[in-house]
Each structure stands twice: as C-alpha cells, then as structure tokens.
Design a protein that fits this description.
Elements: H1 2-34, H2 39-58, H3 64-82, H4 87-102
Helix pairs in contact: 1-2, 1-3, 1-4, 2-3, 3-4
Keywords: Membrane, Transmembrane, Transmembrane helix
Organism: Salipaludibacillus agaradhaerens (Bacillus agaradhaerens)
Protein name: DUF4064 domain-containing protein
C-alpha cells in the first residue's frame, strides 16, 4: 500500500513539474503575443509545490500522516496557480494522500 502511495505521489509531483513548465511556456508565449502574462509568477509557486510533493512522496514511510497531509494540500493548491494544467497532478496527489490520512496510526 505504501509503495502505491509513493509512486502515485512521485508521478503527481513529476507531472506537476511538467505541466508547470508547459504553463511557463504558455505564459512566455502569452507575454510575447499580448504583452502581459499572468502565469509566470504563479508558475514558480506551482513548481515549489511540486517539489514539496516529491519530497513528501519520498517521506511517506517515515512520517505517513504528515506526508499525506502535505500531498493533499499541495495537490489542492497546484490547480489554483497553474489553472487547468494542474488537475492531472491533483488526481495523483489526492490518490496518494487520502489513504494516508484515513489510516489509523
């Protein structure tokens, strides 16, 4: 069970990075075409949240409750910062975080 949560958290964090880079690309293109960008600053926050998700996935065996809460919170915050690009990482991070919160340790 723990390895499933580890792998889904790791996949969610990596997908968060990939979609954040895509959002940075989209923000750069938007800035070139329209002269303004709203995604550049918030994409850096999403990149930090993806890093926190990867670290939490790696710590899932050491501190399962804390890591699970961190995965869920970072998964819920990523779509706020990179909009529709963050819903795929959200699904993977929720899949890895919710069972750890529900278990009785």
């Amino acid at each position: 069970m723990t390895s499933t949560r580890f792998y889904s958290g790791l996949i969610g964090g990596i997908l968060g990075f990939i979609f954040t880079f895509y959002a940075v690309y989209y923000g750069t293109t938007d800035e070139i075409v329209f002269g303004e960008s709203f995604l550049m600053g918030s994409s850096m926050i999403a990149m930090g949240l993806s890093t926190i998700a990867i670290i939490s996935a790696c710590m899932i065996r050491l501190k399962p409750r804390f890591s699970s809460w961190t995965l869920v919170i970072s998964g819920l915050l990523i779509p706020f910062f990179i909009s529709t690009y963050g819903f795929v990482p959200l699904v993977f991070l929720l899949i890895s975080g919710i069972p750890g919160i529900r278990q009785n340790n």
